[in-house]
Amino acid sequence: MSRRRSLHALSAAAVAAAVLLGPAHVAAAAPPQELPSADQLKAALLTANDLGPQSGYTEVPATESPTPGETPTPVSGCDALSALLNAHAGQPGPSVPHAEVELDGQGGNPMVTESLTAEDNDRITADFAKAVDAFKTCHTLTLDAGTPDAVTFDVTPITLGDRQDAPAVRLDGTVGGVRLNAYVGIERFGTVGMAFGFFQRDDTSSQTASMQYRTAVAKVERTLGTTAGSTTPPTAAATAGMAV
């Protein structure tokens, strides 16, 4: 594997970890309360146009992404975070509304991943609390993407968006002399959980990550009729087949 593809795979592994930190990917029975559909969640995801026509981002089809597929991303160095990632690994079952997207800049740098999953209120409350706890207790994290390289990140809690209570961390590491930097943020919109990941090489500025995170939050709020941090179900869930 080339160095560039190896770095891209590690980038994808980091943002895949961000996706897995969203609500649990479980094949549960259909929840009793009405939730937004997968199509509604998809409409609320970021697109390349949302990040600006001159941004240079392109959407990566799931079949083309170098993100590890059938097996969970190996994670070590933080028991709470490792347990959370491993417990939530895999794809959600058909009864769990879910949508995700990966947007790559030129050469895969930077890379943005966003995941939206709808769950019943009790489950998402528990999942969100676990993510908050994992972010607070994790200081280092090692990712092995199945490439010749693995990378250990220093983990620092930060505020990525406008809400101080929304858990977010900054990851800093180096592989093969290349500096790697990521920002991971989790947000709740009633019965919908969002996991956002921004990964870049040879740059440590948080400005672009913060701006794009805010853009993602605003689009979810606008599209689903909800507010970040709310415990009230989105209004989109009240209308089946709602056009968004």
Automatic annotation (TrEMBL):
Chain positions covered by the region annotation Disordered: 52-112, 224-244
Low complexity biased stretches: 63-77, 225-244
Coiled coil spans: none
Signal peptide: 1-29
Organism superkingdom: Bacteria
UniProt keyword terms in alphabetical order: Signal
Classification via InterPro entries: TAT_signal (IPR006311)
Name the UniProt record assigns to this protein: PknH-like extracellular domain-containing protein
